[in-house]
Amino acid sequence: MNSAMLYNIARFILLLAVQVIIFNNFNFLGYINPYPYILFIILYPVNGNKYGLLAASFLLGLTMDLFCNSGGVHAAACVMLASFRPSLFKFAFGLSYEYQTVRLNDVLTPERFSFILLAVIIHHLTLFVLEVFTFEFLWDIILRTVVSTLFTIIICILIIYLIKPSKR
What we know:
Blueprint: H1 3-21, H2 39-43, H3 50-68, H4 73-93, H5 95-98, H6 110-132, H7 138-163
């Protein structure tokens, strides 16, 4: 095993533990539910194995479903995000994505912010639509998606800057 794989395994376990121990207990007014565990999918290396990302995303979502007793909605949302990730990279970064020069844990630029924002919106919208599974509560789905997206992005950016390796 190389160091990048060990680093990804550690990130997987740490983000999952923080989500389960701390952020699963947040439920402010029934609408604010931050899900920073998706940082694993967002920060997965650009040149990493695509099928490995899909499998790890499914495992991440399945583990969240086991802890939340949510019946597979986290797994579906994580796999959806992992499958849309290359398109999001191409949309946010253009050709630099194809040359693998993208590092998301550097200084926050508009491209990085737009990538994180779109990734969180895709995950949350999928999660909340599948959770409710009826368009009768469309405004509730939209409200939960917007508010949870805002808090998830704030927490994700804070975590990115906390785990950012220092330049020596």
